[in-house]
Amino acid sequence: MSQSEQNDSYRTDNHEAIHALENVALKSLEEQRKARRWGVFFKLLTFAYLAAVTIALVVGSARTGLMGAAEEHVAVIDVDGVIAADEQANANAIASALRRAFDNENAAAILLNINSPGGSPVQAGKVYDEIKRLRALHTDKKVYASIAEIGASGAYYIAVAADEIYADKASLVGSIGVVGSGFGFVETLEKLGVERRQYTAGEHKAFLDPFAPENPQQVEFWGGVLKVTHDQFVNVVREGRGERLADDPTLFSGLIWTGEQAVDLGLLDGLASPGSIARDLVGVEEMVDYTVRPDPLQQALSRLGAQIGAGIVAASRAELTYPELR
Q: What fold is seen in the domain 71-285?
């Protein structure tokens, strides 16, 4: 190979090497830019998260301040959904809100905003008892109940603790009864060829077993339990409504009526909205929500925080890896 050819070959190899180095450098720069962009993204996301937390704390403080510093107002407490220990409408949460409302000197009255089909008689009974106790301690404050779409069974149990109950003409009110239900699978097991094996200590430990034939003695006993619970419900309604109740044999049968019918039966004192109760009956325009409920913003932030945390870890690992390409 001549000197000229050797020089040309050298220049070609050198050019290719330079080109390869340029490609590596460009790719490295591109990866660095991507890393920086992700880094900036997660930093902004972290900033947004911290800002949202700060706003939540400020809003929470402002809400607390409003409840403490507001001028004369009506304290509103929601009884929303099924009444049960593990639901939002549980006795502890409602009782907590009631105590705060009664203790606030600026709360002119308490308004139970009810929209519930009922639920646990135990939870309803606890709320009823707490309302009665607080009313006895704060005789200057009246309690009103306002039924929205439905105020039935355990929800009406709570409502009768109020001084007065109101609803819309189309609201569903009543269902003063008790139910205990189940299923029987005896014939199903026989058809499937399944043998039931159950071992107990205690004559009635397998009480009302759905996989065994009905025991008349147990059925009678369970009926007695339901009747006692129903009698407790009836007594509470009679105590709360008194002479306002109509003399109607179907009143405690478990039937449910519209608001308009419920007024005639004495289950309601009239037809009114929460706003009109505050304005026309209490004489106060301002309404403040005292309901104890999970903060949706805090719940969202918790989920967002977990996602951001995972993202930040991933981004940190990426930033540590990219420099190795240089």
A: 2-enoyl-CoA Hydratase; Chain A, domain 1 (3.90.226)
